[in-house]
Amino acid sequence: MCFDFHIHSNFSDGQHSLETIAEHAVETGLQAIAFSDHYFTRKTRSIKPDQLPVYLETISKLREKYRKELIIKSALELDMLDWILTGKELSALPADPSIDFFLCEYVTNESLSGMPLKIFLKFRSAISKPVGLAHTDLPIAFAGIPANELMAIFAEFNIFVELNEGYCRPGDTVPFYRHWDPYFHQALSHPVSFSAGTDMHSDLTILGAHSAYRYLESKGIRNHLIFLHEIDPDRSSLHND
């Protein structure tokens, strides 16, 4: 199964147009992709509120164009540290119904620089759309919270976790998720969903979170993949919209 749920276009800090990325995904046999451009952050080029309608409309047209060949999801990546530092209110979050999900970066425990988990949970509770953590190293970001407790929290608040193929610990050569075995074990008894992506910005050849998907399969939790019922309806048996 081939998909990638974390992709950046030139609407934010990526190099390629939405059209170019969709074309490449079709040509290389991907079944599903999600555009997840940065939204309204100071750290990098990002979509401004007045640009959002064009972004979503462009994705909608591509979804229709490739409806028989490719599932296309629309998402936004939110910088939760910037959200805290600039004092943004929840009302700043776009409410367009065509947004399929939000990816949130810089969510941590109290000891690290980012949005503390307890604040993030209040933020998440006010959002009806699926919400996930982008390229977050669980044992580091949530040090001090046992794996069973963290998975229980994610299950209660319906927070999915991304397996990102592009992020490794300093000096390491394997992605963060290769260090998450205790969390995957707990996911067997908690209805926590997972996503997977490459965080592609410029190199189209890396599209497709193949290794992450195989790793989920090896842990016996492929059915916890978000949107599985759309990508592979014959083999899906679990959740998540």
Could you tell me how far the N terminus lies from the C terminus, measured between alpha carbons in angstroms? Answer: 18 Å
The averaged pLDDT comes out at 93
Give me the strand/helix succession.
Answer: EHEHEHEEEHEHHEHEHH
Query: Remind me, CATH topology?
Result: TIM Barrel
The tally of domains stands at: 1
State the fourth-level CATH superfamily.
Answer: Metal-dependent hydrolases
The CATH architecture can be named as Alpha-Beta Barrel
Q: Quick one: CATH class?
A: Alpha Beta
Q: Structural class per helix/strand content?
A: alpha/beta
Q: Helical residue percent?
A: 25-40%
What's the count of strands? 9
Largest sheet: 7 strands, parallel
Radius of gyration: 17 Å
How are strands sequenced across the largest beta sheet? 1-2-3-4-7-8-9
Brief synopsis:
With 241 residues, the protein is of the alpha/beta class.
Description:
It is a single chain. The protein is α/β, with parallel strands linked by helices and 241 residues long. It has a single domain (3-231), classed as Metal-dependent hydrolases (TIM Barrel, Alpha-Beta Barrel), CATH 3.20.20. It is built from nine helices and nine strands. Strands 1-2-3-4-7-8-9 form a seven-stranded parallel β-sheet. Helix 6 (147-156) crosses helix 7 (181-187). It is globular.
